[in-house]
Amino acid sequence: MTALPALRPRSGAGVAERLARSTAATEGIGMATDDVPGWLAARTRARPARVRRIPFAELDGWSFADDTGDLRHHSGRFFSVEGLHVVRPDGDWQQPIIMQPEIGILGILAKEFDGTLHFLMQAKMEPGNPHLVQLSPTVQATRSNYTKAHGGAQVKYLEYFLHRGQVLTDVLQSEHGEWFFQKRNRNMIVEVDGDVPVDDDFRWLTLGQLGALLNQDNVVNMDARTVLASASMTHPEPRALLSDTELLSWFTGERTRLDVRARRIPLRQVSGWLRDAHSIHRADHRFFRVVAVAVEGAAREVSSWTQPLFEPVGPGVVGFAYRTFGGVPHVLVHALAEGGLLDTAELGPTVQYVPANHAHLPSVRRPPFLDLMLDAPPDRIRYAAVHSEEGGRFLNAESRYLIVETDESTTPAQPPPGYHWITPGQLNWLAGHSHYVNVQARTLLAALNTRAADLDHEHRRP
Q1: pTM of the model
Q2: pLDDT tens per residue, range 380-435
Q3: Could you tell me which residue ranges the dTDP-4-dehydro-6-deoxy-alpha-D-glucopyranose 2,3-dehydratase domain spans (predicted)?
Q4: How far apart, in Å, do the first and last CA atoms of the chain sit?
């Protein structure tokens, strides 16, 4: 008689508690927190890379298709730049968009040392990053990369995410909906027991150390931040303004209400955009441009290559308004519709804008709450750091990330349509599922998860 399979617990026993212990550990076994920026600088010097702008004609292996004008790689792999037409009730627009249908892996390897979980972080160079090298996940690779479409070396530690290890987190998450069309990556944390050889470009760090580093500008990269946000953490919140069921119902209603239709079009048909030898840009030079770069001497699977990048016209401001209700912290989320998202809208921050795009508008027509973030008094700021976005596709894409304490006069308990107050725990719960929390909100959630954001009234930031 064949034995029936044994039943298993529906949730990993104690995972959130173990993550909380790691968050409380301000130092670990691998490297002192204060030494990490110096180590990143040393890795940059050890393998100096050069990134230079080039005209499109100097792209190697990339070309504009004769029929569509789309910018593609000759292999058909990696990604392409195409056109997108977005129609909403408040208007429509056309723009270039990155098409990258493959699902990549963003994976962090975890291991327990002296009773505390540590996470193997990589000093990784990306051509669009300020200062090039930042802390990234153990594995950060597209399918083209890890199947070696570039003809380069094998991605280190990839086998732990494909074949072995205890899964702590595994969820598909979106990327930037304004620049990618329906792009998703697999966000994973995998724990191992045995010995793991540590390459020179890798170090074990606790979540507490990563939280401290999230307070520094351009140290922890976007891919690491989104994985950290997807982990199931402990948030002591017995009550909230909305029950979880009410929250899901409100957001489902917002997705139903927001009528967004997006379709791909040939890049040559995108109206309002011009192409010259060095860039594709709007006639009014707002929003972003498509440029080309050459990378030389990189400590990557391939040391030299050329590629297109998207470059925003200026730095962004991304922020949560924060209040307490009945002693429970809440942040103000925005049901944000973006043309490239798979499911109409995701929960974004209160503010997610590039101020330069709106500088010409009178104050009454500027985006809601933007001036609140720009003019926040220092004693109201609970978190502030400059972070760059995905350096493999975007050039100099930096935003100032903020969590700002507000009050009834500026952010009422009954917010405008499309906004709602939810707790950090509810945001973390939703981030454990696909297509609920956008990538900018996940950066702020990573700060909340690792306690980089100080919401304690008795320990206010200067």
Answers
A1: 0.94
A2: 999 999 999 999 999 999 999 999 999 999 999 999 999 999 999 999 999 999 99
A3: 34-230, 245-448
A4: 69
Residues 6+ apart with CB under 8 A from 342: 174, 182, 184, 435
The domain in which residue 318 lies consists of: 244-261+314-459
Cα–Cα distance for residue pair 98/438, rounded to 1 Å: 17
Helix axes 439-449, 222-230, angle to 10 degrees: 70
Domain count within the chain: 1
From 349, 40, 378, 53, select the one nearest 218 (Cα to Cα): 40
Contacts of residue 218, defined as CB under 8 A and 6 or more positions apart, other chains included, come to 129, 130, 131, 134, 386, 387, 388, 398
> Which pLDDT does position 145 carry in this prediction?
61
**189 occurs within a structural domain:** no
Q: If we measure between CA atoms, which residue out of 184, 6, 207 comes closest to residue 99?
A: 184
Rounded CA separation 118/191 (Å): 9
Q: Are 248 and 429 in contact (CB under 8 A)?
A: no
Judge whether 272 lies within some domain. no
